[in-house]
Amino acid sequence: MIEMRDVHKSFGSKDVLRGIDLKVETGESMVIIGGSGTGKSVTLKCILGLVHPDRGEILLDGQDVDEAQDRDAFLAKFGMLFQGGALFDSLSVWQNVAFRLLRGSLKKPKDEARAIAIEKLRRVGLTADVADQYPAELSGGMQKRVSLARAIAADPEVIFFDEPTTGLDPIMSGVINDLIREIVVEMGATAMTITHDMTSVRAIADKVAMLHAGKIRWTGPIDDMDGCSDPYVDQFIHGKAEGPIAAVR
Amino acid sequence: MNLVAALGRFVMTIMAVIGSIAIYAVQTISHFARPPFYPREFVMQLGLIGYLSLPVVGLTALFTGGALALQIYAGGARFNAETVVPSIVAIGIVRELGPVLGGLMVAGRVAASIAAEIGTMKVTEQIDALTTLSTHPMKYLTVPRVLAATLTLPVLVAIGDVIGIMGGFLVGVTRLDFNAAAYMTNTINFLEASDVISGLVKASVFGFIVATMGCYHGMNSGRGARGVGQATTSAVVSSSILILASNYLLTEVFFSA
């Protein structure tokens, strides 16, 4: 279980997170929605320790993430799909996927790591012949799949998806959404996704949290989202220009 | 009053940058001996930084050696001291021009490419991805580059020294009517081990500076194409200035009376 308690973060004079309280149960798929610049990415980065909160607590299975003794072991519990893929362009596709398996505490023999990488590539719908290509040779949709394969390569307990469908066409978005849903269910992993794509939300989420102005505005099961009376949620999910959320941010 | 405030802000900013670079350099050194190590990355950087800089450093040394021979011959002719050409070319190349020009050329090539590569990785979240994959970016990216540059630049400069002396030799023999055997004997007899060693120590320091500046500015790159462009420019400018400044300091240490 991931729990955030009163998490604050500022960059200079800009308060990005102003007291986030959020609980994600083990095996649950939580989707955080919210406009651009509301602090969605910073929230994920705080949990991973890429950004240090100014105040508040973040607990993973009851343990404060800041007090994790073995940072490697802590990070090995997580997989992350970055918005732009964040594939290493100097490495081939299979070396990207098997990155964690080729070094550090999870190191495996090269052949075994390659076999796992090819298996994970197959899981995301790619054939073995892309394994020796380089990321720059692949289309945007294929890069996203490779990045997804890398995120699940070491069978993490928690997977983060940062804007998984941004920049993809509607069909490819649908494919990636379905893949995410299938993989999360199949692995029994806890998933946290940040997105502003409502199709993604409906495909992926068990629960939804709406982030606005650095705070969680509303949280609840996906089935309750459409009936929610909160004007912020209503404006966001229906994409209305008029409403409490300023159009110019 | 505004002028004073602006000056104060400028000084504060410069001091903060110097402090942050110093901390970065110390952190890098502190990771040299602490595992995990990435030997494959290190070997790859040896090739990229060392081997591929060889043509640039070699050509620079060749032409510099030739020009130096012409200059010293013309200058020496004013007081009938043309015979000093071999010894002054050798000492000039080995002590100063080899390491400094080699260092500056490598700064242009290597600091720029490191800053652009790491800056692009930062902008495209590859540095964050490394961290989430349990890999320390400083150990994986900075340490192999800095170690490779620190170790290969002396080798590059040593080769450059030989090529530079050869440049002087070629000009001396073909254009200035020196006897080939006498030129070589003069060069070898005149040079001392300390001349060569001081030049190689300088080269090693310059290698450290070039790679550290490239990595530092790449890691602190701003967003977008402009951010990466600025990081690249800063890496080249700051490493060039630091090379020239540290060259003076090292010359003071080695050769002050």
Low-confidence stretches of chain B: none
Q: Could you give me the name of the CATH homologous superfamily of the largest domain in chain A?
A: P-loop containing nucleotide triphosphate hydrolases
Total domain count of chain A: 2
Q: What quaternary form is this?
A: heterodimer
Roughly what is the average pLDDT of chain A, rounded to an integer?
91
Q: Please trace the helix and strand order of chain B, writing H or E for each element.
A: HHHHHHHHH
The largest β sheet of chain A comes out as: 6 strands, mixed
Show unreliable segments of chain A: none
* N- to C-terminal distance of chain B: 45 Å
Strand content of chain A: 15-25%
The CATH topology of the largest domain in chain A turns out to be Rossmann fold
What value does the Rg of chain B take, in angstroms? 21 Å
Number of E-state strands of chain B: 0
Coarse structural class of chain A? alpha/beta
Main sheet overview of chain B: none
Roughly what is the average pLDDT of chain B, rounded to an integer? 95
Alpha-beta content class of chain B: mainly alpha
Number of E-state strands of chain A: 10
Shape descriptor of chain A: globular
Our count of domains of chain B comes out at 2
